Amino acid sequence: GQQLNQSPQSMFIQEGEDVSMNCTSSSIFNTWLWYKQDPGEGPVLLIALYKAGELTSNGRLTAQFGITRKDSFLNISASIPSDVGIYFCAGDNTGTASKLTFGTGTRLQVTL
Amino acid sequence: GAVVSQHPSWVICKSGTSVKIECRSLDFQATTMFWYRQFPKQSLMLMATSNEGSKATYEQGVEKDKFLINHASLTLSTLTVTSAHPEDSSFYICSESGGRSEQFFGPGTRLTVL
What we know:
Chain A is mostly beta strands. Chain A is built from no helices and eleven strands. Chain A is globular, with a radius of gyration of 13 Å. Chain B has strands at residues 4-7, 10-13, 19-25, 32-38, 45-51, 57-58, 67-73, 76-81, 90-96, 104-105, 109-113.
């Protein structure tokens, strides 16, 4: 099935640094979701975006719904060790999250 | 968001045996639940949509006779991997939307087939 492209694929950063990652698609989506997955666990929803151009924050996390509806960005400010994990974007066009298309994931590792 | 549990959290079985994985919605009556499979270092791939009281809808390439889904109540969906083989070893995760425009995932079940 279709997958969304995420970049970077992986990144090492130092604690305290800001992180940016993005997700791009060849087709438009009406909803963008960002998840974080820790090793051996299911993904946890971080932020949901429903409108083109929307900018939404959740603590140190900020995500934006691209104006073209073909991309989304996630920023993490002042990273801490517990930010380590894999971040997935997911797009949906059903309005009820009944058909999510997932991104390839960005693996984040934070060094002290 | 919705709270989803899975059981077991991990299972090891012999090749040729069948394994049942349970997915429970703890705080929402879910008419629809979703089953995903995730191989190491890969993303989540939707296997099927589980519909309460009716047949599941399978994604292209997923064998419905091998991955049996039963959604007999509004809080429980089960996935049975029949005649499991080593290539079925994977991380199986269920989810449901809790009536919202997002999906909430269970903790996953690690299946290892020897």
